[in-house]
Every structure is written in structure tokens, then in C-alpha cells.
Amino acid sequence: MLSCRDVAGRASALIDGDLGARETAAMRLHLAMCRGCQRFLRQMRATRDLTQAAVKAEAQHEGEDARIAAILSELHDAKPSGD
């Protein structure tokens, strides 16, 4: 049976689906019996989800900034020269 240290070391691989069937089964067996590792894995999943959401929000924000800059550039270029 895996130790808590083993589970902690392989938790990312489990979350990412990078473990084989035997390793996944061993991890799930340990997790079925160990509340501390269950909490640890939940925290890792929450961290992953929050990080992905932050990256997505930042990408959207950068896209909005680019659109605003393009609009402002077009407005500047289209401004009538009444000088």
C-alpha cells in the first residue's frame, strides 16, 4: 500500500490522468482510507481549477485590452484633421 508521502508525490499525475491503471488503483485505495490525503487532493484540485480560471480570465482581459487598443487606434487614425 502507498504511503501518504507516495500519494503526495503522485497527486499531480493522478489529477492530470498521467498514471497507469495499477498506480491509479493504488492511489484510489489509499485515498479511500486516508482523509488527510483526500483533503490534500481536494486542495490540489481546487488550486488547479483556480489557476486555470485565473489564466483564462487574464487571457480574456488581454484580449479585451487588445480590442480596445485597436478601436482607439482606428478612432485616432479616422479623426478629421481640422487643424
TrEMBL record:
<protein>
    <recommendedName>
        <fullName>Putative zinc-finger domain-containing protein</fullName>
    </recommendedName>
</protein>
<dbReference type="Pfam" id="PF13490">
    <property type="entry name" value="zf-HC2"/>
</dbReference>
<dbReference type="InterPro" id="IPR027383">
    <property type="entry name" value="Znf_put"/>
</dbReference>
<dbReference type="InterPro" id="IPR041916">
    <property type="entry name" value="Anti_sigma_zinc_sf"/>
</dbReference>
<feature type="domain" description="Putative zinc-finger">
    <location>
        <begin position="4"/>
        <end position="38"/>
    </location>
</feature>
